[in-house]
Specification:
heterotrimer; A mainly alpha (265); B mainly alpha (161); C mainly alpha (104); A: 265 residues; 10 helices; B: 161 residues; mainly alpha
Chain lengths: 265, 161, 104
Amino acid sequence: MSRRIRTWVLLLGGLGVAVLLFAASLDLPEFGGDRHPYGARAVEAALARHTANVVAAVNFDQRAFDTLGEESILFCAALGTVVLLRQTRDEHRVRPEPARVDPPVRRYALVALPVTLLIGLYVVAHGQLSPGGGFQGGVVVATALHLLYIAVDYRALERIRPVGLYATADAAGEAAYLLLGAAGLVAGTAYLANFLPYGTFGTLASGGVVPLLNASVGVEVASGVVVLLASFLDQAVEIEDATEHTASGPARHPTLPPPSEEKPT
Amino acid sequence: MNGWLLAAALLLLVGFAPTVWGAASGPVRRRIMAQNLATLVACLAVLLLAQGYARPSYADLGLVLAVLGPAGTLVYARLLADELAGQPVRDRVARGLDRAMTPLAALAVPLVVVPLCVAAGPGRAMVKLLVIGVLLVGGNIVSSRALSGRRAGEKAGAADE
Amino acid sequence: MRPMNDVLIVLALALVAAAATAAVLARDPVRQSTVLALLGLALALLFAILQAPDVALSQLAVGSVLTPLMLLLSVRKVRRKGRADGRADDREQETGSAGEGERR
């Protein structure tokens, strides 16, 4: 296709999208209005199942099957990263040199790590009550562990991060979600149906399976992100390939531009 | 008219908008400092919004941001350490931010958190606000320090602890 | 409450638009990453203002540490590989100011 034809195809497609979007927007409920045909039903269903956070009720109860797909996306992404960024035969590991970190920064990180971890667990555990849930809390938990790399040293992180264990936990979290769905079938209802007692509204034990699904997503996301970042960190910090190895020496690459930090622009 | 929302809007306009400009132009150090300031401003704005909408649970956003904001700045400080080291700070904005950041955090955080505590009254919400305030001030002192390029010992007297 | 809320929405949308434009215009990945961090914060504020705290929390969790960390690690690896400069250094001095000048 020549450039002209491609431009025309693009314009035509864009025009079609614009027309359809405009037509659809004519039927939307008024922006910020009081009438929400879908929202009202979702809120009603969430309250009937004693889940204070309606978003959690939608994600893990009313449309739990959608969330299974979303969870699997991260699982597949972590899997793909591990395969793509694995250590190949012509690559070898070097021990990273210990980083020099300002002592106050190091002390802050050592204090902030448990605090961040606790906040992440809090966000996971309160998914059915307040904003947040397994995904958000899981990412915060994984971030907490990486404070060790950010402000202490990569070796310190490696000590508390046996990647195999986290990969297993990743799979276990994904499996827990699938099995909790199947438990609904065993209990005599549908796949991923909310079959547990709903509990008291506004407490940690409310919402039936919602907190359990949240916890399994939390485990999956936290370990998935740890595994994902482990591949990235290994490649960036430890693994060198053959070219990097053979080219080692004091001579710098001739095309390297001169360092130009703080250049006034 | 809701005073809390008005305060949040003003904070976005005079606090957050300039940091977008600061993070999008100039040398790397200044950009990271702008990012550091932006997390502080965004966290305070979220707390004001939570009070303005009368939704105490929105304060969880502030709680998460209070720990992740400084951690994000430390990511830049760690992975761009070699770019930050060496050259002196020549950019005027960066030098100003370097000097102003810690006093600003120490001043702005109580200025926002204390009225919010008074409005919340004693209880769990107030404890959460105070925790957020402490995390914010501590985190910002440390992240500004990590960025300023001062070596340990040089200004040991000004260190926290 | 209503007019104030509209002001907040317009303000947050303007901030998102400004940060997103700046992110597109920045050419160097390192410099772009700081703009992306700001864009993430602006988006989180917008979501909070539109009463979607769950989405805002997701944005904050991913955007404030995870994205910059992955971006900067990738940049470090690519630059090291590009230079093929051996094991000796983590002294990634390059700021890649090429392309930056075009913009202003």
